[in-house]
Amino acid sequence: MRWKNIAVVSLVLASLTGCSLANKLVYRIDINQGNYIDQNAVEELKFGMTKEQVKFLLGPPMLVESGYPNTWYFVQYLKPGHDAPEQKELILSFDDSNQLVGMKGDYQPSTRFFEAIR
Questions:
Q1: In angstroms, rounded to a whole number, what is the distance separating the alpha carbons of residues 2 and 55?
Q2: 82-to-9, 23, 24, 34 alpha-carbon distances in Å
Q3: Nearest CA to 77 among 23, 12, 32, 14?
Q4: How does residue 47 score in pLDDT terms, banded at 50, 70 and 90?
């Protein structure tokens, strides 16, 4: 009778701690949402590019506010399986003639950003 109590108690304790110990063994997929922003593509951006050229390099923006159509938001959200999520943003500004005039966010422009477009 005593060994049955010990077996039940050890089974309950094992089931309570089993999930936390086996959590890292369970496969979890990486979750990518939003725009995939490639640093190489960001380095190709040049001052004075048109919206069409920027869209060709980076794809369509995640958000264009209706009141501010000359500001484009590119947002990349990545949640690796067991790691902490990370979010990166790239905000591009255009003038009234649809040419790129500004860039800010988590990505830095290249040193050639202000060179002439060929």
A1: 73
A2: 31, 9, 7, 20
A3: 32
A4: very high
Specify the 3-state DSSP secondary structure of 58: helix
CA 23 to chain CA centroid, Å, is 24
Structure tokens at 50: 């048109």
- d(Cα 41, Cα 115) in Å, to the nearest integer? 16
CA dihedral 102, 107, 112, 118 (to 10 degrees): -70
The structure's pTM equals: 0.74
pLDDT, tens only, 18-46: 556 666 778 889 999 999 998 999 999 99
Give 4-51 as a 3 state SS string: HHHHHHHHHHHHHHHHHHHHHHCCCCCEEEECCCCHHHHHCCCCCCEH
